[in-house]
Amino acid sequence: MSEPTIEDYFVEDRTFPPPPAFVADALVTDDSLYREADADPEAFWARQARELLTWSTDFHTVLEWDLPDAKWFVGGELNVSANCLDRHVDAGLGQRVAYHWEGEPGDTRTITYADLLDEVQRVANVLRDLGVDKGDRVAIYMPMIPELPAAMLACTRIGAAHSVIFGGFSPDSIVDRVNDGGCKVVITADGGYRRGAASPLKPNVDAALEHCPTVTDVVVVRRTGTDVDMVAGRDHWWHEVVPAAEPTCAPVPVGSEDLLYLLYTSGTTAKPKGIMHTTGGYLTQAAFTHKVVFDLKPEDDVYWCSADIGWVTGHSYIVYGPLANAATSVLYEGTPDTPGRDRLWAIVAKYGVTQLYTAPTAIRMFMKWGEQEPAQHDLSSLRVLGTVGEPINPEAWMWYHANIGGGRCPIVDTWWQTETGGHMITPLPGVTTLKPGSATRPLPGVSLQVVDDVGEPIERGGGYLTIDKPWPGMLRGIWGDPQRYRDTYWSRFPGRYFAGDGCKIDDDGYFWLLGRVDDVMNVSGHRVSTTEVESALVDHDAVAEAAVVGATDDVTGQAIVAYVILRGWAEENPEMVEDIRQHVAVKIGPTARPKRVIVVPDLPKTRSGKIMRRLLRDVAEGRDLGDVTTLADASVVDAIRTAAG
Question: Fewer CB within 10 A of the end CB, N or C, for the chain?
Fold first, then answer.
């Protein structure tokens, strides 16, 4: 075995076995799934596919693997909307709530499975009337309202693929995605609510469509009631065409490998990558992971993933996984601080949420706001907590465990990507002993290895996280660019999928994600992970949140620059910065001590909560800033520049 290639500094030795009271009623309580999958991965996934989904035609071949191209459940046919809706209604679950929807202004709707099925069939017929056929692409640019999952499912009902575009994106981003996918129809809304105000969407579509020749029609939901331009012959109000549509639309069986959706993710070049997910394998992995990772009891649970459906987390764990499992979910339109900083906890208490799935950046924001916010509400209904989006710092994990989970809820820290389609590394809450900050181990049926610079496996220490065997939810390529797919994901380590994440393995075989290897800093010949330094910073009592970048340095090659948000009580202490620097040196070693610690009021984050470290590097090195259109609050950058001097 090879030597580590990324330094391993941060040590976390706290452990949390599954609570006995939880294990007593858990779906999975032993290692039998792991043993089954290890013995025969294809048979394991075939069993999940047949038990969790309904197929109109059974598959004859589990896997065809011609590296890097996979085909799962070959010969099988199914329909996603039928799996998410019809079969549940047919089973007598039509009155089960699919979504408790909460609008940011406080308006609410309760949507049952029967309600959603009725809406989906009508929307599917509208799309057909507009000329959408099997295999066509439909762009969806909407706020977090129930019409969004209805639109996605309507596409799947007729065999069309959807391309959901995050509602915070600019007209230029819409142009890129619509044109690359050759979309025929756009479904949008006049706007949505964000931080107490109506945020326009339709005007962005209008601006984009001046440059999108493939689009013939636009369907518009009236959400905010703001005036919008409606182009005669092209634009159609949802509330006019959907209720008037035929009420029944038979689901179209599609092949397991037929395209389900495109979802665009930023590339290193200017052109975004259209990640392709197909039908049978993706839905199998979404349903399986949603069930076992969240210990789902659909007849009792109220599950809430707080992500936006515009990201893959929302696709897999707000729409497809939960609906395939007949779950009841919460869907929330707005921000966590509107009208107050306790909005999420009020919603948890209101609906009796049992599983909460949110991002580490949000948890650190809640830490900054203080434990008094969740303490105002009864959170005793919660039984499983989850994190997604980036590695979670151990201290944020501990705060989440104590203040949101009351010390009784297992935390499933999930690693996966847009490209993987579903969870890959995560605990099973009734089985896995947890370590704060570790995603623990790969799931049953998933095979990952950490490797060194030449692709040799590492048993202990840091390196590059690779996937060495195909998995059902894997991307099937980049739309229209098969060579880019090979170059991006399969060329760095031949025979292995690699999408850019660093990882270390500890003495117990637990995986610890180290963030993007692009963010690994080279300090005097030591390769230091930003994640480990950030964890040490947040370990300091005064630090609520931190982001670290490497800036060019004449002496050390790169110097560590830390941007920190202090808790309120620490902001007036002029000696705090040096104390924080020394804390990092004590916690993980002098090599990792930041050269500069810059106290900032906030960090530059996208609307999905990811920290844009590229902008922080630009500030640290005095460069002009790149694109800031995806920031939740662009004014933050000016405040950081001022703080940095």
Answer: C
